[in-house]
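Researcher: We plan to redesign the surface later, but first we want a full-length starting point. Tokens attached.
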């Protein structure tokens, strides 16, 4: 079943057709720079360009880097503040004419990793952390997602953790691997203390270089680099759209169950 997966990030908006049943990309990724300022109107215009590029009329799964409840945006740490309160699902549907599912970017990446990647068949508590412009998080218990956990905004040293430990902080402050690794160690140990996970999965583009910084993170739980890399968001968004619009077949972890946790009773956004 082909679905158009779109990943909205701070710097780029990327899309590809995905086979939502096996997690494979059916096309090359198509990327457009994220407009600045990243207002709802400007981003919706880019979503339309991605849909048009693929001449797509079917279901679309879309990630967004904020709290998303029932398609509505409830925070805006790294996007234009005018997103707060915007119904992203309705906006993108009106612009494209497609059926659109919108979920948090880290939740999408986590779903893809749990079904097809580093979390496959892993029971118990799994925390997926994505290191990029911000820190995204996805929390799973026996394969079920507790959505919108926002662990990047835990307080650390009196400030926002992601300001100190995201990949963007390493870049901005020109930190060496060891200095950044120490901050990650403090952050991961705090998350471990709060959630006692059985496994951490570490995503974001920088997870390619995990051997440079995993050695500084001294948690009891093992760390696994994400295996879906920069495709995880696109694939997870497509899986979510698929699960919400179709009957899904047998899977190791039932994606539909995962997504049921995400949806709320109608009218309670
Ligand atoms: C946002 C999260 C998002 C994460 C990664 C954070 O600043 O609050 O919603 O998942 O960045 O993009």
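Model: Full-length starting sequence:
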């Amino acid at each position: 079943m082909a679905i158009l997966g779109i990943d909205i990030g701070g710097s780029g908006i990327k899309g590809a057709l995905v086979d939502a049943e096996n997690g494979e990309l059916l096309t090359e990724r198509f990327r457009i720079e994220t407009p600045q300022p990243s207002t709802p109107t400007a981003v919706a215009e880019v979503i339309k360009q991605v849909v048009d590029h693929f001449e797509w009329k079917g279901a679309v799964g879309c990630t967004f880097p904020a709290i998303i409840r029932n398609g509505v945006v409830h925070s805006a740490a790294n996007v234009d503040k005018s997103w707060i309160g915007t119904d992203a699902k309705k906006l993108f549907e009106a612009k494209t004419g497609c059926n659109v599912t919108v979920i948090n970017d880290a939740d999408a990446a986590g779903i893809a990793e749990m079904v097809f990647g580093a979390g496959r068949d892993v029971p118990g508590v799994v925390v997926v952390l994505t290191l990029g412009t911000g820190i995204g998080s996805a929390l799973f218990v026996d394969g079920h997602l507790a959505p919108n956990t926002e662990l990047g905004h835990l307080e650390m040293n009196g400030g926002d953790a992601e300001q100190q430990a995201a990949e963007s902080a390493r870049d901005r402050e020109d930190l060496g691997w060891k200095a950044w690794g120490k901050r990650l160690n403090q952050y991961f140990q705090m998350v471990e203390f709060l959630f006692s996970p059985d496994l951490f999965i570490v995503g974001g583009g920088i997870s390619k270089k995990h051997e440079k910084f995993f050695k500084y993170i001294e948690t009891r739980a093992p760390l696994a680099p994400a295996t879906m890399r920069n495709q995880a968001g696109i694939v997870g968004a497509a899986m979510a759209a698929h699960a919400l619009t179709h009957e899904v077949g047998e899977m190791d972890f039932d994606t539909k169950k995962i997504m049921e946790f995400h949806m709320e009773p109608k009218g309670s956004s």
